[in-house]
Design goal:
The chain is an alpha+beta fold and 73 residues long. 30% of the residues lie in helices and 38% in strands. A 4-stranded antiparallel β-sheet has the order 2-3-1-4. It is globular and about 30 Å long. Residues 1-69 form the HMA domain.
Length: 73
Amino acid sequence: MNTTVTISGMTCGHCVMSVKEEIEALPGVTGVDVNLVAGGLSTATVTAEREITVLEISEAVAEAGYTVVAENA
């Protein structure tokens, strides 16, 4: 199952590493692909063995210091 969200506030590779680390800590997550758009809105696609809710992803992203602004269809 894949879920893609849009994240604001990310500007560098360290941001990507922080977001990936927090999301990968969620139970059932098997992969995270982050597309960084420095100074813009970045996306993260989460692959998991179970349905991961946008709320779960949002909370993990917030732990890293960033904000999920939208779920992408």
